[in-house]
């Protein structure tokens, strides 16, 4: 299995988005703005435009309204956009490992 740098970038973006979602209500507006800016920067640098666009829009919303329930919906949309960029599972895992992983995910 070869190393795919885009897969590592997508995993990093997903980790960042999930981290922000887990901290909802416990993060200040300036810190949230900085974290979203980092997500936007990484997404744009690696041409994950859908995530970059959502992050830029969320930054605008944060500048106007501060923290709001809309943040979680943007984070959910970013997570979905990252998932859309991921290759199918059978392209990532060797054929013998895929059924075992799927079984563990459904257990």
Helices and strands, with pairings:
Elements: H1 5-22, H2 29-45, H3 49-65, H4 70-85, H5 89-92, H6 97-106
Overall tally of structural domains: 1
SSE order: HHHHHH
Number of helices: 6
What global shape is seen? Answer: elongated
Mean pLDDT: 83
Give an overview in words.
This protein is mainly α and 107 residues long. The protein has six helices and no strands. The longest helix has 18 residues. The mean pLDDT is 83.
Summarize the structure.
This protein is mainly alpha-helical. The chain is 77% helix and 0% strand. It is built from six helices and no strands.
What are the defining features of this structure?
single chain
